[in-house]
Amino acid sequence: MSLDAIVSAIEPVSMKQRDNAPDAFSTALGDSFKRYGFAVLADHGLDQTVLDTALERAKTFFAMNEDAKAKYTHTKENQRGYFPFGQEKAKDAEHIDLKEFWHIGRDLPENHEFLNIMPPNVSVDEIEDWHTQTYAMFDAMDELGIKIMSSIASYLNLEENWFDSAMENGNSVLRLLHYPAQDTPPPEGSVRAAEHGDINVITLLLGAEEGGLEVKDRDGRWLPITPPPGCLVVNVGDMLERLTNHILPSTLHRVVNPKPERSKFARYSTPFFAHFKPDFEIKTLETCISDDNPDRYPESITAHEFLLQRLREINLI
Questions:
Q1: Mind listing the domains of the chain with CATH numbers?
Q2: Nearest 5 degrees, angle CA 102-CA 107-CA 111?
Q3: pTM: predicted TM-score of the whole model, two decimal places
C-alpha cells in the first residue's frame, strides 16, 4: 500500500453519526484508534467563536516581549501559566523542542479535595478577559472529551457512562501552543516537537491543518496527518493504552520543522489533554485481558502517580 493510501485510510468520522448511528460511530472511532492510535473527527460541534477568541488571546500573548511573558512563567510546583521557549523535551530526547506554550487547568471550588494537586489558573493582566475567554475553550473541549470517552466505552463493551466518574474533576490541561517562525535554520537535531507519546487519556487537537504533525506507523514509517479544515484530531494517550492493555495504542508522533516555503510562518495549535481524576486507579480492564493478550500491568497505579512519573521524564518537574 502506498503512503498516500495509508494516510487517506484515516478518514474523518462525523460526530453527527454519534447521534444518528451511535454503534457505527463507536466502531469507526474505535477501529481507527486500534489501527493508528489516532482518529480524525468532522462536525465536532465546537463553537467556532469560542475557539477563535481563545486563539486570538493566545497569539496576543505570544507576541508580547520576553520580559512581559516571563512574569507568568510557571513554577515546578505549579503546572499553570507560561512555559518559555526551549524548555520541554520529549522522553529520552537529546534536544529541546522548538516551542513555547501556556497551560490552563480545571477551575476548582474553594476547599476542593484536589486543590493540592491541581493548582489555580493564572491570568494575564495585559490581555482583557484572558481567563474567561481561554477557559471557555477548556470547558468546550472538556465536554467534547466526555462524549468521545462514552463512545470509547461502548467500543470496549463497557457501559456508555463507565468513564464519567473517572473523568469528572479530571486533571485535564488545555495547552495553547506556539511554534515560532524559523527565520534562521534551527539547531541541528532540533524539531518543533520530537517523537513522543502523550501521557494522558486522550488528546483533542485543533490546529493540525498547518503541516508538520506526523504519526509513526507500525512499520516505522512516519505518516503525515493533515486533516481537512474544521476537523479535530484525537489520539490515545499512555493512560488509556495501559488501561486497555494496549488494545488501544498510544502512538508515537512528532511535529517536524516546516518546509522552506513555510518556515517564515508560525504554527499554532491547541491540544486538550484529557485526564482521569488524580485518584483514579489505572488497573487493566478485565475485558482487555485474554490468552492472546495477557495482562502487561498486574500492578495498578493512580493517575496522579502516573502523571508525576512522566512529567519528570520530560523535564517539566
A1: 3-313 (2.60.120.330)
A2: 135
A3: 0.93
